[in-house]
Design a protein that fits this description.
By secondary structure, the chain is mainly beta. The protein is built from one helix and eight strands, in the order αββββββββ.
Length: 179
């Protein structure tokens, strides 16, 4: 038969297990993050000099809606100049974007965006045109901090046109900083 000691040990074990489960139940709702803790900044910054001079400044700001979903907006400014002995052409491209990301892991994510650009076109006349693009693809982030990292993306423009300033596939490399 059971001795009193075995019964007491059994009850203590059961009570300890029940209390341990209760203490984990208390932490159902983790502490809420502040708004600023979910905000991140980043973008692209690129330069090229020579016969072709190119500058790209494309900052963005985003918000982590959940651990897996983020969304944000960005602006784009690009300067382009081609100069040789016979020809000197320069232009400015500007616009913006709205994007969304879904993280599969801490390093891999899907990216989709709508981008609007205003640029110069050369049909029969030199004129400015609006270019609307829908881009989607995948990305990789190499983290160098909890909320910061270098991002590389491979995107495809599903609405490529004669005026689109780049061809498929589109490779972007940039940085992201969070608080």
């Amino acid at each position: 038969m059971f001795s009193k000691t075995k019964i007491v040990l059994f009850l203590l074990f059961c009570a300890n297990t029940i209390l341990a489960q209760d203490s984990t139940m208390i932490r159902k709702n983790p502490p809420k993050q502040r708004f600023i803790d979910k905000v991140f900044f980043g973008g692209n910054l690129g330069f090229q000099f020579g016969t072709v001079t190119f500058a790209d400044v494309s900052p963005l700001v985003g918000y982590r809606i959940t651990d897996k979903i983020a969304a944000g907006v960005g602006v784009t400014y690009q300067y382009y100049r081609y100069k040789d002995r016979n020809y000197d052409f320069k232009t400015n491209v500007y616009g913006g974007r709205v994007f969304g990301r879904y993280s599969f892991t801490d390093y891999l994510f899907a990216h989709a965006e709508y981008e609007y650009l205003n640029l110069e076109a050369f049909d029969f006349f030199r004129r400015r045109v609006d270019v609307n693009s829908i881009l989607a693809g995948a990305g990789y982030i190499q983290r160098f901090g909890q909320n910061s990292g270098i991002i590389a993306m491979l995107l495809y423009n599903f609405t490529e046109s004669a005026y689109t300033p780049y061809t498929n596939p589109i490779i972007r490399v940039g940085v992201s900083f969070g608080f």
